[in-house]
Amino acid sequence: MMNMRLVQPADLIDLNAVAGLDFIIEKDDCLEIGALARHHQVANSPVVKKHCALLAEAAGTIGHYAIRSRGTLGGSLAHADPAAQLPLVAATLGAEIVVNGKRGERRIAAKDFFVSMMSTALEPGEIVVSARFPKAGAGDRHAYLQFSRRTGDFAIVAVACMLQKRKLRIGVGGAEDKPRVLEDFSPEEKPEAIARSVREAVDPTESPRVPALYRKELVEVLVKRAVAKCLSSS
Amino acid sequence: MPEFELSVNGERYSVRAEPRKLLSDVLREDCRLTGTHVGCEHGVCGACTVLVDGKPSRACLIYAVQMQGHEVTTIEAVAKDGKLSPLQQALHEVHGLQCGFCTAGIVMTFEAYLRENPRPTEAEVREVLSGNLCRCTGYHNIVRAILRVANEGRDAPA
Fold it and tell me: Which of A10, A42, A169, B44 is 20 to 30 A away from residue B117, measured at CA?
């Protein structure tokens, strides 16, 4: 953002030196991951792969190796790029974002945390300290697919799909100003039919470089493939 | 202008630089280590990749002041006593570079990656290499060079 001269902050505080924020802890019902956990660490963590495979898979597609080695979970969530992997996964899984500041700790549901393009429910003086991702149950399945013009670019559209308790939940990133989650699809429905209804539901922003219609097409194709992949995975 | 100490390739450098000065610029202009190249200046091209505490990082996405207390490793430290590293030697032998602008970043990326995954598949090499843009070679010989290093020590070369 600063290299592109899109923001010019007067002051910056480097959080990298804050000790104890790079944890990955398994709790009874969730995985709690510290804001300074690096994407590479999240993608390759055996605990994350076991209990939150969607998160591990998506984190492994962020940028490139050097970017994943340095980039953090908290940074990605707070940045809130509408096409980024971690906001999409957090929204799709119904994660909680834990923030802290002068007024103390708050836990914010992902659906309330992401407000709009690159804007979150963080108040001035607050930082993201961790995120709590629900653990997948036995028999849950997932799929993650994205389309970008070059490997490692931000996705034009990304789709995350979860099959849980005979219900499909579909998250779409990149189409709107924040991740969009659609729930309660039946796995008995044809992937083509689900894809058409998600296409109808999303309202992509028009842009000279990526027409809204093109994003709708991508949403339909990726949802169809993600649902098929999710239902056929084990 | 603040003055601070950096540790680069095991040597201490005393630097006077604005806090907003990027690590890539400080390495080149203040430490006089011009092996680190600057391409896109926004983290995409990979030319400026260095190691921070052994992990690959874009020097253009870090301020030099952030590196106090950390160890930075640049391309200048890869060859030891004038002897190329196995990866550098392989790049030389299989023609894995042409103009060489991207090469420093590629060497730093894979010096780190091959320590973490010493026997990568070609698909893994290509995935990691996607973070370094090269406009000359078409990548094939870079991949060959990396796989040659990875296959050294195997019973049957792939």
Answer: B44
Q: Among all residues of chain B, which has the CA nearest to that of A8? A: B20
Query: Which residues on B lie below 8 Å from A17 (Cβ)?
Result: 69
Give the residues across from A168 on adjacent strands: A163, A185
CATH class of A19-134: alpha beta
Domain A19-134 and domain A141-232, same fold? Reply is no
Tell me whether A10 touches chain B (CB under 8 Å).
no
Distance from CA of B80 to the nearest CA of A (A): 24
Nearest CA in chain A to B108: A66
Q: What is the pLDDT along chain A (234 residues), one digit of tens a residue?
A: 888 888 889 899 999 999 999 999 999 999 999 999 999 999 999 999 999 999 999 999 999 999 999 999 999 999 999 999 999 999 999 999 999 999 999 999 999 999 999 999 999 999 999 999 999 999 999 999 999 999 899 999 999 999 999 999 999 999 999 999 999 999 999 999 999 999 999 999 898 899 999 999 999 999 999 999 999 976
| B15: number of Cβ within 10 Å | 21
- The structural domains of chain B, ordered by start, are 3-77 (3.10.20.30), 86-151 (1.10.150.120)
- A81 contact residues in B (CB cutoff 8 A): none
Residue A45 to residues A55, A134, B2, B51: CA-CA distances in angstroms? 10, 16, 39, 21
Q: Give the residue extent of every domain in chain A.
A: 19-134, 141-232
Cβ contact B52–A70 (<8 Å): yes
pTM of the predicted protein model? 0.95
- The tally of CA atoms less than 13 A away on the side-chain side of residue A88 is 34
A141-232 folds as: Enolase-like; domain 1 (3.30.390)
Give residue A31's identity as a one-letter amino acid code.
L
User: CA–CA separation, A99 vs A119, rounded Å?
Assistant: 15
User: Chain A within 8 Å of B57 (Cβ-Cβ)?
Assistant: yes
The reply to whether residue B128 touches residue A64, judged by beta carbons under 8 angstroms, is: yes
